[in-house]
Specification:
The complex is a heterodimer of chains A (189) and B (69). Chain A is mostly beta strands and 189 residues long. Chain A has strands spanning 3-6, 14-17, 25-27, 33-34, 37-43, 51-61, 68-72, 80-88, 93-102, 105-108, 115-125, 134-144, 151-161, 170-188. In chain A, a hairpin with a 7-residue loop joins strand 1 and strand 2. Chain A is globular, with a radius of gyration of 20 Å. The two termini of chain A are 17 Å apart. Chain B is of the alpha+beta class and 69 residues long. Chain B is 58% helix and 17% strand. Chain B has helices at residues 23-56, 61-66; strands spanning 5-10, 15-20. Chain B has a two-stranded antiparallel ribbon with strand order 1-2. In chain B, strand 1 (5-10) and strand 2 (15-20) form a beta hairpin. Chain B is elongated. The chains are: A mainly beta (189), B alpha+beta (69). The A-B interface holds A 28-30, 33-46, 67, 76-77, 93, 97, 99, 102-104, 106, 109, 111, 173, 175, 177 and B 4-14, 16, 18, 21, 28-29, 31-33, 35-37, 39-40, 43, 61. Strand 5 of chain A pairs parallel with strand 1 of chain B.
């Protein structure tokens, strides 16, 4: 959208100008990708953007105790460190958690219940760089239906991935299965 | 027994593939999930133990939170 900028050459001292380029989001995986099975992978992500934004919308899990996590480049064991704050509406408690040498970035971690209808957002800045390890930050929530009444769990987190490799693929994984949900991967310049 | 299903969307070719995990992929997935489950169980055990020690002192988690701990 054009905006007013100062210009002394104008009689009014102002003129309309086009905004600086950049900042827009481009959907990389056309139309989004429906989650199913144990893992959904978005591959051949181009390195032409500055940041990645990952949206996981309306996800639900196949059964009780199914968690959800994200991996980069399919790397698994001993590759992620995280710090998170888990806020459970049911028990009104806020639990800080941290981990090292984990297999992924956990955005759902449930016990004895099934996560339904949740949303997760993850920002991965400078994902294509090869001169530093990768960091990511995000927030997610789930609706947990057992015990009733259903309660919400909110989970903000920060992550370090122990790798200098450019990220070219993103995996949305579960220890069980996904019953639904869609992942959208956006690039930002 | 069949391995779990995975889906792969390739941005470059705009194609989606669904297939079973290979045995190597299944082992990596299964090992990771077992490691996470073991870690969660150890954390739950440590939390339960700490809460029992607090209770023996006449304290609760709520008491610690009230102190900003």
């Amino acid at each position: 959208m054009p905006k007013f900028v100062a210009d002394s050459a104008q009689s009014t001292g102002l003129k309309w100008a086009a905004p600086a380029s950049g900042g827009g989001l481009t959907l990389i995986n056309t139309g989004g990708t429906t989650l199913s099975g144990a893992s959904t992978s978005i591959t051949s992500i181009p390195g032409t953007y500055k940041n990645l934004h990952i949206y996981i919308e309306n996800f639900s899990m196949g059964s009780n105790n199914n968690n959800g996590y994200i991996q980069f480049n399919g790397t698994t064991s001993d590759n992620y460190a995280f710090a998170a704050q888990r806020r459970s509406g049911g028990s009104s408690e806020a639990n800080a958690t941290e981990g090292n040498n984990d297999v992924g970035i956990y955005f759902i971690s449930v016990a004895g219940t099934t996560a339904e209808g949740g949303f997760a957002y993850l920002l991965v800045p400078d994902y294509a760089a090869t001169n530093h390890r990768k960091v990511a930050t995000g927030v997610s929530y789930t609706i947990n239906s057992d015990p009733t009444p259903a309660y919400y769990v909110m989970n903000p987190f920060g992550v370090l991935q122990n790798s200098n490799s450019a990220i070219t693929s993103v995996q949305v994984v579960s220890n069980g299965t996904y019953a639904g949900g869609t992942v959208y991967v956006y690039g930002e310049n | 027994m069949t391995n779990p299903l995975i889906k792969i969307y390739d941005v470059e070719t705009d194609t989606t593939t669904e297939r079973e995990m290979t045995d190597a992929e299944f082992k990596a997935w299964d090992d990771g999930n077992k490691a996470k489950a073991a870690k969660d169980a150890a954390e739950a055990q440590a939390k339960s133990s700490a809460e029992a020690k607090l209770a023996a002192l006449g304290l609760s988690v709520a008491d610690l939170k009230a102190l900003g701990l």
